[in-house]
Amino acid sequence: MGGMLAPKLDQRYTYGEYVTWDDNECWELIDGVAYNMSPAPSRRHQEVAGEIFKQFAVYLTGKKCKVYYAPFDVRLPQGDEEDEDIIDVVQPDIVVVCDKNKLDSKGCLGAPDLVVEVVSPSTGKRDIKQKFMLYERSGVKEYWIVYPEANHVLIFKLDGGKYGVPERYTADDTIEVKLWDDLVIDLSAVFNEEI
Length: 195
Description:
InterPro entries: Nuclease_put_TT1808 (IPR012296), Restrct_endonuc-II-like (IPR011335), Uma2 (IPR008538)
Domain Putative restriction endonuclease: 17-177
CATH superfamily: tt1808, chain A
Structural class: alpha+beta
Organism: Sporomusa ovata
Strand content: 25-35%
Distance between the termini: 22 Å
Low-confidence stretches: 1-6
Number of domains: 1
Radius of gyration: 16 Å
Protein name: Putative restriction endonuclease domain-containing protein
Pfam family, one: Uma2
């Protein structure tokens, strides 16, 4: 998502407080710190995220896994705390969830199987640092960081509780998604700039 890394005041918040905010803006909580996700993403960001979502959605039609796009709350508890006490709530650009028990009317509770973040100039540092550590700690199996202006994707895969060296893909590549035997993401379509 686009936006500034502007904290909401200088304090820590919980999901219970987060759900009471009605200011027509999108927020995320990382370790209790609130980050404003406004303004709206760029056209390029929307095109890239939309094409990735479309390819996942077409493949997952009729399968047990579901794909969602922002805004969609992903609550990542650090232990067995109550829902309202969770201090990590993010809205990734795209999430894939295969365990239906993690889905509820509020979004996803627990680690999705796959998360895609499409980098904006104002969110890049957070995507590669804070969210990287959060997704690794929470057990997200695959974390994709997509750079729409540079036309490349970094994919981190969880191995022994840690993300290893990322796989790097460019606009000429296809990605064989290891979570399924026959899903291939065509990056030439993702990074198409013919308009």
